[in-house]
What does this fold into?
Amino acid sequence: MAQPDSKKIFFENLSGAGKAIAVLTSGGDAQGMNAAVRAVVRMGLYVGAKVYFIHEGYQGMVDGGENIEEATWESVSSMLQVGGTVIGSARCKEFRTHEGRLKAAHNLVQHGITNLCVIGGDGSLTGANLFREEWSGLLGELVDQGLIKADAVQKYSALHIVGMVGSIDNDFCGTDMTIGTDSALHRIIEVVDAIMTTAQSHQRTFVLEVMGRHCGYLALVSALACGADWVLIPEMPPEDGWEDKMCQKLSATRSRGTRLNIIIVAEGAIDRHGKPITSSIVKDLVVKCLGFDTRVTILGHVQRGGTPSAFDRILTQEVQKAMDEKRFEDAVKLRGRSFENNLKTYKLLAHRKPESDLPTSNFNVAVLNVGAPAAGMNAAVRSAVRVGISEGHKMFAVSDGFEGFSKGQIKEIKWADVGGWTGQGGSLLGTKRTLPAKHVDKIAEQMRKQNINALLVVGGFEAFLSLLELLTARGKYDEFCVPMVMVPATVSNNVPGSDLSIGADTALNAITTTCDRIKQSASGTKRRVFIIETMGGYCGYLASVGGLAAGADAAYIYEEPFDIRDLQANVEHLTEKMKTSIQRGLVLRNENCNENYTTDFIYQLYSEEGRGVFDSRKNVLGHMQQGGAPSPFDRNFGTKISAKAMQWVTKKLVETFRQGRVFANTEDSCCLLGMRRRALVFQPVVQLKEETDFVHRIPKEQWWLKLRPLMKILAKYKTSYDVSDSGQLEHVVRNRPKESDASVAM
It folds into this structure.
């Protein structure tokens, strides 16, 4: 599509008229596949194309007939919360043959299908590419056999294929996260959390075997997320003598009072000589050497099951080649930077060095939480404490934020003190919203008394404001002329300088799970609309992304103003929806989206205007969004970002130590560490002031706003948006249903 002037794609001008698209799922199922199928179907219909399901993967393409079925808008409703793949998946030996692919080509041409969306793993996508390469030759054979007419070769000359990777192993190059990986991690962590309670009661060691015949991603990340004592993965086999080292580690942790040991084994784990290391081998080793009560849990296909989470790489020949040649360091590097960083972080946090091997820095570093509690805060604190100790610092924990700081609620915290913290929700240190300016003289006194040389603050918008206040206070108090760094942690995800905050993923999962349950509660009830209020202050992140994940019809937020006409149009939109076979509606409202259009107002408006057509129910989610065990993403994000922050602190302490003291008074010694476009970046807090709306406590620009038109499209609203070269998305949303067909399904 030529774009000589604007170099932009205008989706409202894209036309699929006269085109046919087919979607199939192939290979092993993965949670989130149904959400992908739903989006393909609705986006295809939105641009005016015919869309087909191909049931039972490539087998259905080869067999044809009823396996190739035209899809409608309503036929993908209620799919978001379903695990597995609704349209089926099957292994197909016949498609691996030339004759099988010839049959598949014939079946596609009969339906005019020249566009395929394949959702599957490495074998599925490799097969799709071979099919594409052979396409023109296959059409020629079909003409020669008299199965299609000669003009069909030109009419259907090219087969266009888009692949989406559905694989819980996260073993495909070219993507950071495959469909199903996050949900599989959820299943693993749920099992670990459940095991931990019983194991601690009985002083047990658990050996957990997770999927990953060739890729250790699930084992590695779950080990990082739960603070496992030992992990065995195929890419990095343990050094010879690992058996004694592992048992020594387990014995040491047990002698320090730990009642639980967890060892995670990838199903493809091997030693340096290529010999398999199975979960039963590990169990027998622990029992024989230590006599510990040890149990084995093999998760197996439970990792594939369950409801997909809110966030949902081809095992390359180069990786396998490196492993076969015992070039394990190369294999880890080939997995990608993220995998490599995960491994480094795990080694840093899990394996405590003997006191005699630790450096001695003579620096004291304080860690505290500021603002509202957010799941993942404890993982961040654990990471900071252990990295700090590994770097030779004396670590201090501050209770109850800056209010506790002013009262002297400060004590040294040791390695073992933070054991088991990764899976704990809330803030074990305690947290308050109090800003330091209120008690700045007392805080300075405590800094001097405890000889605190650096601060690491884990928190939300209040933490950002706190660092700005401490930066200002440097002019009066030399005690604050020390390195200070903030790690963003808030369910609202409203901290400037970071695309993501610790805790937001857990909150999103809570919202999505609740919405799923609410919709399921109405499975026997027709014509019902649910109005759900989410947290976030003035930030609409939770309502918008939660709405997209849950299949909402509308999400009202402060950043996108709306009026009574928009509300009325939404009611009319839902009224039309109730005339179809899909008779449930879901509307999300951010708590501060509008001071007059409250949740009660919107509920009453929908109730009155929908009278006789549908009834309404409301639900205020409240603080349940802040509670619960942290998600795998928040555990790992908190762990990795805090480790990096602590390493920055060490660097700054060395740089600013002069004449027997630490003195740091430059802007770049008071930073926020944020996630920006997949990279962790240190930014001086003073430079973030221009990016901040202080009145509404949100960044002036927010990346997730570009997702909102997708929610509108998937709910069949008239929406246009464009993606520029910079990746920024501008959009115009008209909250009016299509006159031709205003029906909508979730």
User: Anything to note?
Assistant: Residues 31 and 180 are 5 Å apart (CA to CA). DSSP finds 22 helices and 28 strands in the chain.
